[in-house]
Design a protein that fits this description.
The protein is of the alpha/beta class. The protein contains six helices and five strands. The longest helix is centred in the first third of the chain and has 16 residues. The two termini are 35 Å apart.
Length: 160
Amino acid sequence: MRAARYVGRFAPTPSGDLHLGSLYTAAASYLDARANCGLWLLRIEDLDAPRAVPGASERIIATLQRFGFEWDGEIVRQRNRIEHYRAALQTLRDRGLTFECTCSRSQLEDEQSYPGTCARSLGSRVRIAQRVCASTRTSSASRTRFKAAFARMSPPRSAT
């Protein structure tokens, strides 16, 4: 069996100009990929439209070029892969590996991980292995306020 080729990547969010910490992260990833005779990919994380700053992607790319970074292949822009993500999500749904969640970002902002609020409402079909936080529980009235539901991965079922 042949070993997989090393692939490194840098995936900035175009929420502004590239700052020193991001440049350091890019350099570490780039050097690691090159030291392992691997590929280094550039992916622009532009799915969060409200955070995207017009022109930031182009300025990030220009900054990387000025510092001598060379990526392998085309730049991947997440917004151009929406259909791929929809198909992958549908596959997960078809396999019963997701559940719908109507928690808003503000409800989850103080959580380190998803507390299981919506999954608990599914009853015994989903076992939650994460801590339960009463502060994020929502009433059925507040759930109906949210129009969009998001798919979350179901936790693994225990062997017992």
